[in-house]
Design a protein that fits this description.
By secondary structure, the protein is of the alpha/beta class. It has 8 helices and 10 strands. The strands form 2 sheets. The chain has an 8-stranded parallel beta barrel with strand order 1-2-3-4-5-6-7-8, surrounded by 6 helices. The protein is globular, with a radius of gyration of 16 Å. The C terminus is likely disordered.
């Protein structure tokens, strides 16, 4: 089980998520997001936790050049793509970075067929309004949820165990239910989420050794 804490906006939140045992941090570059960060902030936050934690750039509707420039500047290790996108576009991004292709329940079957056995592209099922904190109907998705896909959409400490039991995802991703306010993580909620999703995975982060060179 992989655990991603998305909507990271500061070094402080990056470190607390990494110390809780998160495998990945999400940095949102979609202009419409309340959790928007600059590439510089994402780079500093990512470097503060070292290479053991994946750094995922989250995009919605940006052009290919902008995605690649931003990802390079922020030094992310993977890219998460939201919105209606052509297959060619996703493959072009995947030529440079591993891709989490985010889909809604209505598009799950078609996208699963498109990306089955595609190198470098992993599906993530999310709610129709990402970051809104509303869980999906996991029972209704049990028969169509692809093996190896990730799950997002309204997950938090109180419901992630039930979601995992229902769908057996390869990874889980959370944002709004781990916050004290939009863009500010609640340390206790982050710790509880990671501990529930994957017990015993805390780590020590020596952020003072990281550089931005």
């Amino acid at each position: 089980m992989r655990v991603k804490v998305c909507g990271t906006t500061s070094v402080r939140d990056a470190v607390l998520s990494a110390e809780a045992g998160a495998d990945a941090l999400g940095f949102i570059f979609a202009p419409v997001s309340k959790r928007l960060v600059t590439p510089q902030v994402a780079r500093e936050a990512g470097l503060s936790v070292g290479p053991v934690v994946a750094r995922v750039g989250v995009f919605l509707g940006q052009g290919l050049d902008e995605v690649l420039r931003t990802a390079d500047s922020a030094r992310v290790s993977a890219v998460q793509l939201h919105g209606p996108l052509r297959g060619l576009y996703v493959r072009q991004v995947a030529a440079y970075y591993p891709v989490l292709r985010v889909v809604r329940p209505a598009d799950l079957a078609a996208e699963a067929d498109m990306w089955r056995d595609e190198p470098g592209v992993t599906l993530m099922l999310d709610a129709p309004e990402p970051g809104g904190g509303v869980p999906l109907d996991w029972a209704a998705l049990r028969d169509v949820f692809p093996r190896g896909a990730w799950l997002a959409g309204g997950l938090g400490p109180a419901n992630v165990a039930a979601a995992m039991q229902a769908l057996n995802p390869a990874g889980v991703d959370a944002v709004s239910r781990l916050e004290a306010s939009p863009g500010v993580k609640d340390a206790a909620l982050v710790q509880a989420f990671v501990a529930t999703a994957r017990p015993g995975q805390t780590r020590v982060i020596h952020s003072e050794t990281a550089t931005c060179g």
